[in-house]
């Protein structure tokens, strides 16, 4: 049976990029033929420093964002990673399968570690092995992610293939990445060459799901652009990354193609396009922010939902972990 797994780090407030590239699609994938399992990957978040009280709040807030965006904890399994110990255990097993050279090649590691790799956590380097564990502990067949996670997904496939080959088994599926739509890489509002990220030091670079209407309108108004009017087709956006980004955001929010958006705004400047985009962003995000706040008003209920999700996740993960240990020759006597 097909099984979808994906996760988001509670490493800060979620952004429009997370919503369009991940959350919105997570919700849309529910109720199909595949089982859906969604995880707040708190063990990934701590690969860079997190203030404990802030992290706890961010985990609850991310859970609220998932549900506000339409992830239904009845239809999907929704939980936080650190409550299901199979993830960390499987990650250790995969640390012995993955090669160090694979890890150093990851562009996310290079970006997040910067030049001084001596002083970053070992976890930041091992991150992709834990991500492979997240996915393969459920034998997930497909993973909806943004474009930035493509390389990690390939590494997950490499780990699965090497494990299967080394032990002569078919224990793990070769998972398919689902990178679909026009918003698989929403860019920073300040720099058209960088993706929008919740951990970007500049708050003006992103739209947060907790931003109010004024903040959203102001960030879009100040978003970097060129001075040319919009072209009639996406062909004309080729060398205009900032313009392309805003058009793609509009298209994703409106569930239209970028060409359809351009046919409406052809010849208009950003003085006209930005307010239209701001209105659309506000009307799309306002109900989500409101639902998030409603969920956040009852943290005990969020905790209950995450606890229940963890039990369901554990039931799927533990037998697969146990079988994996057995394959590797780790003696099981109880
Ligand atoms: P961080 O800066 O802490 O890494 P992030 O914003 O990159 O945070 P992640 O938790 O790393 O968020 O990623 C969660 C999901 O959101 C992944 O599937 C990722 O591909 C997707 N995603 C992240 N940023 C974007 C973006 N700018 N556009 C589209 N999808 C995105
Ligand atoms: Mg990220």
TrEMBL record:
HAMAP family: Trp_tRNA_synth_B. A motif ('KMSKS' region) lies at residues 195-199. Gene3D superfamilies: HUPs (3.40.50.620), Tyrosyl-Transfer RNA Synthetase (1.10.240.10). Homodimer. The keyword Cytoplasm applies. L-tryptophan binds at residue 134. The keyword Disulfide bond does not apply. ATP binds at residues 9-11, 17-18, 146-148, 186, 195-199. It is an enzyme of class 6 (ligase). Catalyzes the attachment of tryptophan to tRNA(Trp). Belongs to the class-I aminoacyl-tRNA synthetase family. It comes from Paracoccus acridae. A motif ('HIGH' region) lies at residues 10-18. Its EC number is 6.1.1.2. Keywords: Aminoacyl-tRNA synthetase, ATP-binding, Cytoplasm, Ligase, Nucleotide-binding, Protein biosynthesis. One of its GO terms (molecular function) is ligase activity. It is found in: Cytoplasm. This is Tryptophan--tRNA ligase. It catalyses: tRNA(Trp) + L-tryptophan + ATP = L-tryptophyl-tRNA(Trp) + AMP + diphosphate + H(+). InterPro entries: aa-tRNA-synth_I_CS, aa-tRNA-synth_Ic, Rossmann-like_a/b/a_fold, Trp-tRNA-ligase, Trp-tRNA-ligase_bac-type, Trp-tRNA_synthetase. It comes from the Bacteria.
